[in-house]
Amino acid sequence: MLERADRGISATTSGTNDPIRRSTEPAAGGLVLSSSRLETFSDGVFAIAITLLVLDLTIDAARGNHLLRALLDLWPSYLAYLTSFSIVGLVWMGHHVILSLSMRVDRRLLKINLALLLVVAFLPFPTRLLTEFISDPRAERVAAVFYGVWLLVISVALAGMWRYTSANNRLLRDDFSQARIDHITRIFQPNIALYAVGIALGLILPQIAAGLYLVIAVVGFIRTA
Fold first, then answer.
1. Taking a C-beta distance cutoff of 8 angstroms, is the pair 99, 175 a contact?
2. pLDDT tops 90 at residue 26
3. Distance between CA atoms of residues 161 and 193, nearest Å
4. CA distances (Å), 154 to each of 19, 53, 64, 94, in order?
5. Which DSSP string corresponds to the chain?
6. Backbone phi, psi, residue 58, to 5°
7. Which of 93, 124, 150, 181 could be cross-linked to 52 through a Cys-Cys bond (beta carbons 3.0 to 4.6 Å apart)?
8. What CA–CA distance (Å, rounded) separates 208 from 79?
9. What pLDDT score does 98 carry?
10. Which residue, 17, 22, 42, is CA-closest to 32?
11. What's the pLDDT tens digit per position in 109-164?
């Protein structure tokens, strides 16, 4: 699919090496751009975001005498890491699908893509808050709610990228059927109901909410099957 998309982009640039060139049929943003740099840059951001998640899995050397206990006490870190890794993985998969189906890239899509990368790159911070404070009665509610809200923001950003790309076949092939667009739109649709339940639970039962966020990630994988 990526090869097909690249061929479509190459056709619009008429074989030139210039990554930005006016097209005879410009997209909504006014310019048709090469997608190669966008994909490379985006993949780098996704990779860095995932790598930063694992940095929270640490054990103080002073606890070496009780290492097993220390490993068990890290359960919030394991849970948050697995959830955040799954979310970033799902977004990367969705991002790959969008660019694979796009025949061209315009400036507005570049800006939407940057907004998506911004919220994804920020995810290690709420993940760290969740791991550090989910067992702290004074702060666990704030950490759980903030984490859930940010997962929802990421989901909405990805859905927004697809909606811009697919609206009126803006950046898709002219023969791309509305039925396929609707099917993919349903897959990208943010599960607002589940996130709302998770955020509400975060105010009452933060640790249960943290578990629900993992369930949401699992549901996301099922929906993409």
1. no
2. no
3. 20
4. 29, 16, 38, 12
5. -HHHHHHHHHHHTTT-S-SEE--SS--TTS-EE-SHHHHHHHHHHHHHHHHHHHTT----GGGGGGHHHHHHHTHHHHHHHHHHHHHHHHHHHHHHHHHHH-S-B-HHHHHHHHHHHHHHHTTHHHHHHHHHHTT-TTTHHHHHHHHHHHHHHHHHHHHHHHHHHHGGGSSS-TT--HHHHHHHHHHHS--HHHHHHHHHHHHH-HHHHHHHHHHHHHHHHHHT-
6. -130, 155
7. 124
8. 11
9. 94
10. 22
11. 999 999 999 999 999 999 999 999 998 999 999 999 999 999 999 999 999 999 99
- Distance of alpha carbon 6 from alpha carbon 96, whole angstroms: 12
pLDDT tens, position by position, 29-73: 455 566 788 999 999 999 999 999 988 777 776 666 678 887 888
How many angstroms separate the CA atoms of 83 and 77, rounded? 10
pLDDT at 69: 82
Q: If you count them, how many residues does the chain have?
A: 225
Helices (H), 63-106: 67-73, 75-101
Is the model more confident about 20 or about 26? Answer: 26
Amino acid at residue number 158:
L
- DSSP code of residue 174: T
Phi first, then psi, for residue 61 (nearest 5°) are -60, -25
Q: Which amino acid type is present at position 127?
A: T
Task: Return d(Cα 19, Cα 95) in angstroms, integer.
Answer: 21
Spatial distance between the Cα atoms of 102 and 27, rounded to a whole number of angstroms: 11
